[in-house]
Write a structure and sequence with these properties.
Blueprint (H helix, E strand, L loop, with lengths): L1 E5 L3 H13 L3 E5 L2 H10 L4 E5 L7 H10 L10 E6 L4 H9 L4 E4 L4 H12 L9 E4 L2 E4 L4 E4 L2 E2 L4 H12 L7 H8 L10 H15 L6 E4 L3 E4 L6
Parallel strand pairs: 1-2, 1-3, 3-4, 4-5
Antiparallel strand pairs: 6-7, 7-8, 8-9, 10-11
Length: about 230
C-alpha cells in the first residue's frame, strides 16, 4: 500500500513516515499542497494523510482537488485522513463534508494513526479485521506478523508489504509496474528488478514454511494469488 504524508512540520512528517514504513507501507512525503497535488497527479496513492494547515493553501482545498482528479479504471480513489489541530465539532464536520474519510486531531498517538490507516485500507476489500487469512497463511497487520500453519515466518518489511497486497487483492492480476506503484515509494528505481527479486524471496520463504506456489505467474500479464492446498 502506498501512502502520501502531507505535513509541513518536518519532525512530525518524519515521525509519521517512519512509523508507517515500519508497518510495511510505502510512504512519500510532501511539505505543502502544491507538492502534494504534483505527486497525486502521477502516483496512484491508496491513502493520503493530509495536514489542513499548510503553508501555501488550505488542506480542505487540497482534499477537494485530490478527490476531483480522474483516476484510471484499475486505480483506487485515495482514502484521506485529515491531520489537524482544528478540533472543534464544526471543523470535523467541515472536513468530512469535503470528502475526508477520517479526521484525527493533533496531538495524536502514532499507534492510533496506524490503526486508522489499517481500517481505511480495508474498506475496499472483503477483509474486516487486521488479520487476513487465506489458505492457512495468516497475516496480522497489527502485530506485523505472518504465520503459516500457525508458525511465525520472518519476512522483511517489503516482503510483508508485498504479501499483504496479494492477500488483500487475491483475485486481481498485478503487473510488476502496478506492484512497484503500490508497494514501493518514490525512491524505488523502476529500471531495476527489485519487484522480481523481492517476489522471488517471498515465494521461497512461503514455500519453505509449507506454502508452495502461493503466488502464480501469468506470462505476459503479471502475478496473482493462487488458491492452493498447503503441504
Amino acid at each position: 500500500m502506498r501512502i502520501l504524508v502531507v505535513e509541513d512540520e518536518p519532525d512530525l512528517a518524519s515521525a509519521i513516515a517512519i512509523s508507517l514504513r515500519r508497518d510495511g507501507y510505502a510512504v512519500d512525503v510532501a511539505a505543502d499542497g502544491t507538492a502534494a497535488l504534483d505527486r497525486v497527479v502521477i502516483t496512484p496513492y491508496d491513502l493520503v494523510c493530509l495536514d489542513l494547515n499548510l503553508p501555501d493553501t488550505d488542506g480542505l482545498d487540497v482534499c477537494r482537488q485530490i478527490l476531483a482528479m480522474p483516476v484510471a479504471d484499475d486505480a483506487p480513489v485515495p482514502r484521506i485522513i485529515m491531520l489537524t489541530a482544528r478540533g472543534s465539532v464544526d471543523d470535523r464536520i467541515l472536513g468530512l463534508d469535503h470528502g475526508a474519510d477520517d479526521y484525527l486531531v493533533k496531538p495524536f498517538a502514532l499507534g492510533e494513526l496506524s490503526a486508522r490507516v489499517r481500517a481505511l485500507l480495508r474498506r475496499d476489500t472483503t477483509v474486516s479485521s487486521a488479520v487476513v487469512e487465506r489458505n492457512g497463511i495468516e497475516l496480522d497487520a497489527g502485530r506485523h506478523e505472518v504465520r503459516v500453519h500457525g508458525v511465525t515466518t520472518d519476512l522483511t518489511a517489503k516482503e510483508f508489504a508485498l504479501l499483504r497486497w496479494f492477500l488483500l487483492h487475491p483475485h486481481d492480476v498485478h503487473s510488476a509496474e502496478k506492484l512497484l506503484e503500490h508497494v514501493w515509494d518514490e525512491h524505488a528505481d523502476p529500471f531495476t528488478n527489485t519487484v522480481r527479486v523481492t517476489l522471488s524471496n517471498l515465494r521461497k520463504k512461503l514455500a519453505d514454511a509449507g506454502a508452495p506456489d502461493a503466488i502464480e505467474t501469468l506470462p505476459g500479464r503479471g502475478y496473482r494469488w493462487r488458491e492452493l492446498q498447503l503441504a
